[in-house]
Amino acid sequence: MPGPPCGSLLDYKTAKFSLTRNRRVGLLHRLLQLGALGYLLGWVLLLRKGYQERDTAPRVALVTKVKGAAVAEAAGRRLWDAADLTWPPQGENVLFLVTHFIATIQQAQGTCPESPSVLDGMCTEDADCPVGNPVVHGNGIKTGKCLMINATHSTCEIYGWCPVENSTLPRKPLLAEAENFTLFIKNTVHFTKFNFSKCNTLQTTDPSYFKSCRYDPVFNPSCPVFHVRDMVEAAGENFVDLALLGGSIRVLIEWNCDLDHPATQCQPQYSFSLQDMRYNFRTASYYWGSQQQLYRNLLKLYGIRFDLSVHGQAGKFSIVPTAVSFGTSIAFFGAATVVCDLVLLYLDAKADLYWKEKFEEAKPPKGKPEATA
Known about the structure:
Oligomer: single chain
Binding site for ATP: 65-67, 182, 280-282, 300
Number of strands: 15
Radius of gyration: 38 Å
Shape: elongated
Structural class: alpha+beta
CATH architecture of the domain at 55-114 and 164-317: Sandwich
Helix content: 10-25%
Largest sheet: 9 strands, mixed
Strand content: 35-45%
CATH superfamily of the domain at 55-114 and 164-317: atp-gated p2x4 ion channel domain
Order of helices and strands: HEEEEHEEEEEEHEHHEEEEHH
Subcellular location: Cell membrane
Transmembrane segments: 27-47, 323-347
């Protein structure tokens, strides 16, 4: 009489261990175990430090200051110091250092011919300059007149700041001495998960230390005072070439702190990379003349923009990630046995023999049949 239809669901299966003298499978088993052990020791514990709890989102405070002075002869001899060359004056994540400029002095609002370098300002007669139309990529509003500025060029008369902006760029940086300027970068990180804070500056009572020290990754890593020239060269550029038309440099500060070691070993790593060539913007200073006429001096500033970013992570021993890492590695040891079983049962030439030895049905002794309903 057949058993109940759900009888197979109630069967119990227990593991059976068989010793198989198959050297190929035995070698495979040991190699898989060695791989699991190497994963645990090399990758999990040494490289990834899987026994540590990690904080990858520190709070960051960043302050920058520029020191230096340069003299420019354009538009009259003038001394430029950090207050003139640095934008914004109180730098934080972004800092712009002026290295070159074009000056247009004593502009006043009135009428004057448009620049011949502006295509929309070119004309041959008054009809080409409709009244009230702005000059595309130009300097003002058309007045309806076409003016001859020389024997070969005529341009529309405009209402705007006159004379129009000077577009002649000197061939050499006017503030080339800016390469000797220094940039002070003070950075503090706070890992809230571990209540741990660290600053990149050396804790010293000597007030003159930061005035004389210069950063060196080997001999002076705790001095956050950088030469501008060194920063540009570290980004793979020549200062004179970059100073002429400007550019953008990324300054990356990376903290990788192992809090299982002394706090003095938690030091930042600095890296510099060029992000863009050519960077400039315009600014103007306004003043009143003797006849109560409003004037301005227009400056087109070229320079180096420093984009500062801070990344950080800290790790400390914790029992939870340690248990998880060891549990994962033990699972890999078990997977090695499963793989070898699959090879024996499905891929080996004697798979039928191994299958019979691996699986055996335990039947009740004869003469003592199981009770049936």
